[in-house]
Each structure stands twice: as structure tokens, then as C-alpha cells.
């Protein structure tokens, strides 16, 4: 053991606190991000042992090149009709986001979160899953519902917490839930859905079912203990699950370095846990589709779980509650080297002669109208803060299946209070 | 067996562990959605042997070991329950439950509410709790009031083999999440609080005659263990036996109520008793401040104030970590109970 005298000659220790390369006022330059070319990252057979593919956690699955050409072993070779459907679902997601964000700014609801720039991560993945596979999303995968043709009016009713909100106005806007849509109730406590997805997948496997589970979390939330709990359970029981880390570079104002992203890739965590790991160009819808399809096939054939890092960029703020100009460089989104997922798929469709500017403009108009029509319909059911849409009693319902006496008593107190206030609130 | 709960069929003499084991066995036999898991639960059958034989009987996919990861155990249970299974997860010691707390408090307990009934969490968390086994501060805690403070979860604590089986079956079959605390000090015999005398085995206790078949004790129903008119003693778990023994030793005509379920609470039985006796002593091993006794005391005061002849007394553990060597000085034993009963039996003028 070193003595105190010896210690005096040691250099002082230094605490490293990560810092993003660019802050407001800086001209962001992403030229040092290593981007493998299309085809450089190999595609192993779906039955290959995860031990033989650690390189995939450091590569980048890509299909579309800068000119919009699809190439390489990951090309899913989708028919043009499917490509157009995917493009439309992404465009609809973006239009929906734009409209709902404005609705929040107009005071029609309390909160909203866009997924701008990340549409492919949810939409293309959903296209590669089966309709009855179960999804455990985080708060930025509204694209799953849209890709599954879920009703926009139903989603908006939730955002407005209005009288047709199936969740009875109990949840923060965007925390959708639909069993029929195979979309698990979103939690505001981050990454909790990860072990739940693994548990669902374990149950499916234990029951000899054929359905698999897929879950998503941000790179920031992948620092949560729940993420690591999920990884170890998924690995130990070889659960039929796809675990997606959406690395959009920012967790509110904290850059990915605070989740460990400066030291290694997020996909590389798969190596330590003994999972198959893929790092994917998250702005390339075909790459996301191909990676998800590969992982889904692995899971469905008892070849185990896959951790997928989607390398993407959060083009807008975290939510309606923050201002990205306060913490990051203004040109980041525009200069993101992997472009925009909608623009890239559009370019590809045009390059294969299956799309053109006119049709694209027409589609944009069509989705805008669709969203506008849905909004009008949803607003007929009410908007947040303009009258109470749920009868007071619903506050106490479904805490338990059967209401215990203490809740009945508290409900009566509330009704008495309402009477004392001359019945301002709606009751049954 | 308490009044009004009759069972048909053969009985077998069982200690608490065997009764708990039998409850899971009965449920697994009846419903193949029931599965049990936790640290050392599968092949070995649990460090307290509560799941012994279940893997052999039902196979590895229904009774299995898990990583040492309570967040994962409870999180996976939530996912399994959402799938449609009825997971019974063991947290090896209640002291270890904290890493899994978020999954229980924010997820399992809230799922029905936040999804408006589309997704539910009919899971059971079994966990041994309480001290008196020289477990030190990390194997002795009684964290039950943390769970009663959370909306959406039920808290159940048995005190006999008969109750343990009936309550655990009710917990497993309940549509909502239940935390089932097992008082480990009385796994093998009803402890009377006299740590320096030999413990009687369950075989000497009538509640060890446990029916072999299926029966459920409704959650939210207390058991009046002993009827009396002088004072109401509210207790649960190990403290039921310590309290009953103290009452016999003092020769006082106390009404001893074993709460069995803290949430939902059987307030009707409590209220009727305190209105009859006019006095109330609350007994639990957990730390005092914000313990479940505080809630009980408030409820009794709110509902029985004009019937009370003396201030409500709380007999509890101290607000310190559970000490290893000073365990019996910490434990709310016969002397602490006697002093509290003596205080509560003084009338308002100060005369005993």
C-alpha cells in the first residue's frame, strides 16, 4: 500500500464530465461521424450465433445510399406498393405531429411530443412486424399506431383528454394505449416498458405462442436500470423480443454522452449481455425494415432476442416544454449526415421510377387533409381545459377492479365537495 | 380457522412454509397461467423452501430461477400478467424489494387505471418480511406501509398456516396486484415474543390443520382471534402471536384482531370493536413514524373518538435500522406490549 508521502507525488485525479461538440452559436460539423458505406455491414444468417457477430454492433446497417439507390445484403427488396405505404405512413405521422403540436400551442391541450426525423424508426419497424406482435413503445413511437392504421381521431381524443378519450383523460397527452392495436400503455417513467416487453415475450414463449414482442426506448433512458434488467432477462431466457434503442442524440438537453454514447455504441451493449446486436441507420426506412425483419425472424424461430440501435437525430425539441435553441446548435438537424427519412425514401421511390414530385405533393396534401378532418372530428368531442369531459366518479374507477370502501368514501367526499361548490363538475 | 369459513375435505398438518407451498401447488394445478419464479425459486425450491417441488411437478417454464435483479423480476411479471398469465414472483427478502419498487408502484399498480382497464396486472409478489431471526438490517425489515401508501396494490399479511394458504390463493386469484408479506419469524412456529424460550412448532397450533384442497380467504376481512371487552388490540403477522400471548399473560380481557389484509382494510370490524371496548392498542414490528399504525390510529380516532376512554397506543419497532446484536431490544416484545396496555387501561383521570 502506498504511503501518504508517496501519494503526494501523484498527479491529481481528474473527473471527466462529457460535453457535446456543439452548443448554441456553434456551427455544427458532423464530418467526423464515421458512416460505413452501403453494403459494408454484412448480413448474417438469422440462425447464426450472436457470438459470431459482435462487429454488427459497431457497423451501420444501411440500404439507401446518398443517391437514393437501394443496395447491399440488407436490401429487403420491397415491392413499390409497400414502399409507398411506408412513405405515406411516415408523412402522415409528420403531418399529425405538426397539427397536434400547433394544437398545444393554441391551448387545446397541455403537452405534445413530435417524432420529427425519427418516423422511420417506428413506421418501418412496424411494417416488418406482424400485426399481432405486441409493441411496448416509449413516448415517441406514434408511428406504430399510424402504420397500423389506427384511428387518428382516437389518438387525438387521447391528446385532448376529451369525452371520447378511451383512457378517460387519465394520462398525459401522447401516452396512448390500445390492446386491440397491440400497443402497450405508455409510461412516463422511462424504460419501464423494457423488462415488461421481455416478460410478455417470455410468456408468449412459455405458452408456445407464435407472437413476439418489440420495445423501444431512447438512448438517454437506456441508462436506466430497467434497460439492463431487460437485457439480462432477455439474454438468460432467450426471449423472443426486439429491443430498440432510438439513439436520437438528445435526451431533453443532455447529449448522448451522458448515456455512455461517447465511449461506445449503444448496440455494443448487446455484446456484453450475449444478445445479437445491430446498429442501424435509423433514417433509412429500408434499413430499419430489414433489421427489424431479421430480428423478428430470429425471435420467431427461437434464435433469441436482438438489441437494435437506431442511429438517428431528434430534429425538434424533446416536447412542447423545452427550447432546443437553448442547448444545441441551430444547424444540427439540417446538417445531420444521414438526412431525413421521408426525403430519403421519396428519393428512392423516384429513382426507381415509382414516384414523382407531383404525386408526393398530392400525398402531402392528402395527409394534411386527413389530419385536419380528423382534428375537426376529435374537437367535437372536446379539448382539454374547456369543461370537464369525464364525470367526476371516473377518478375513482379502475384503481382496482372492485372499488374498496375507502375509495367509495373518498368518492362521496368529492361529490359532497362538488355539491358545496354548487355542482360545477359533471357527475353521473 | 375463523368463524364463517368452513371447508370440506381432508386436512394435513402444515407449517407456514408448507401451507404457502401448497397454495401455489393448488393454484398451479387449477390454472396453467399461474407460474412462480424468483431467485433460487426453481430447482432448489427457494431459500425458505416455499417453492420446493413445484419445478419438478410443473416443469421449468412454470417454476424457474431468475437473475438477481428485482427490477427485472417484477418488470417481467408485469409483462407476463399483461400477456394473460398470473405470475407469482418471490422477492427473497422484503428488504430486497426496493430495486423493483418502480415496476410495482408506477407500473403494476397503475396499469389498470392508466389503460382504463385494457391492461391489468394480476400478479402476486410473495416476500418474507420482519425480524427476530438475527437477520440484521438487510433481512429484517417490515416495509408494508410503503405499499399501503400506493394506490392500486393490495397488501396482505397472514399469521397462520391456514390463513397463509387461503389468503395466498385469494391473492393469486385476485385481478389486481397483491404484495403478500410472509412473516418469516413464524414460518416454523407461532412465536410468542419470548425469544429466550423454545418455540412451539406449528403442529401444536390448531391453525396448522390445513385443508388439502382449494379455499380462499377474502382479502379485506379481518379475523377476530379473541373476543374481549377491555381493549382492542390491532395486529398482523408475527405480532398476532406476540400480542395474543401478552394478553393471556396479563390476564386482560382484550379483543385481539388479526387484520390479515392491510389494504383493503376491514374497518368495519375494527370500528365495531373499538366502539365496544373504548380502547385501542396498535401493534406492528415496523418502524413507528408513518408506519401503518399511524394510519390505523388516524382512522380509529376519526371514527371512534367519542367512544375512546384513553389515547390510542402504538407498540412498534423504533425508527432505527433493525440492529443485529440488539435485535431483542428493538423487537416490540412482551414488555413493550405490557407497558402500552397498562397505559391504555388508565382511565382519563389517571387512575389505573
UniProtKB/TrEMBL annotation, chain A:
Oxidoreductase recorded as keyword: yes
Annotated ranges, domain Dehydrogenase E1 component: 88-383
Swiss-Prot/TrEMBL keywords: Oxidoreductase, Thiamine pyrophosphate
Annotated segments matching region Disordered: 1-33
GO biological process, one term: branched-chain amino acid catabolic process
Positions of the 2-oxoisovalerate dehydrogenase E1 alpha subunit N-terminal domain: 11-47
Record EC number: 1.2.4.4
Cofactor (UniProt): thiamine diphosphate
Pfam families: E1_dh, OxoDH_E1alpha_N
Molecular-function GO term, any one: branched-chain 2-oxo acid dehydrogenase activity
Family of this protein: Belongs to the BCKDHA family.
Protein name: 2-oxoisovalerate dehydrogenase subunit alpha
UniProtKB/TrEMBL annotation, chain B:
Family annotation (CDD domains): TPP_PYR_E1-PDHc-beta_like
Main enzyme class: oxidoreductase
Residues making up the signal peptide according to the UniProt record: none
Ranges for domain Transketolase-like pyrimidine-binding: 14-189
Transmembrane stretches, start-end: none
UniProt record, GO biological process: branched-chain amino acid catabolic process; response to nutrient
InterPro entries: THDP-binding (IPR029061), Transketo_C/PFOR_II (IPR009014), Transketolase-like_Pyr-bd (IPR005475), Transketolase_C (IPR033248)
Cofactor section: thiamine diphosphate
EC number(s) per entry: 1.2.4.4
Tree of life domain: Bacteria
Keywords, sorted A to Z: Oxidoreductase
GO molecular function, one term: branched-chain 2-oxo acid dehydrogenase activity
Protein name: 3-methyl-2-oxobutanoate dehydrogenase (2-methylpropanoyl-transferring)
